């Protein structure tokens, strides 16, 4: 398990890590295809196939996470559509106690998300999870995603953390792989990012399905 005495900084992903990924999965796999079908006069099946192909083409790149990109590509009011289902935005049940314990232990807590700033703002508005964090960073500020080594070099320079004494928590294996390649000393995967889906079996990294199992933190 984690040796908290060797960790000074905790970098945290947002969607699927602090927040339930159900909102995002529902939005991108259900809401967007339905809106696309209606706008383009397509069957839902055809619209979903088109959308999934478009997602696949930019997967892992900053465009995949960019609401402006999708609004332009699909000619859809993306933020308006998000607000229609914003009631689904929720903090994971195990997060408040975990973040509170991290704060009390003196760790530096930084959000590092690929989410677009508008999406980040909406989620803070709905949940106020930012009250636990020292800093919020959207990779859109850098123009590259967490999958990119360029991002990690820039973030390290700007935030000044010791990567050997940093814990990074994320639900994406590809993002964790990028953090590992960069040299982040401690990595933790989230096995259950979407509350409506079964836990995943993760063999590559130490994983957790309830942060409270990591307590106490010293």
From TrEMBL:
Pfam families: Hydrolase
InterPro entries in the record: HAD-like_sf, HAD-SF_hydro_IA, HAD_sf
Molecular-function GO terms, alphabetical: hydrolase activity
Keywords, in A-Z order: Hydrolase
Keyword DNA damage among UniProt keywords: no
Domain of life where this protein originates: Bacteria
Name of the protein in its database record: Putative hydrolase of the HAD superfamily
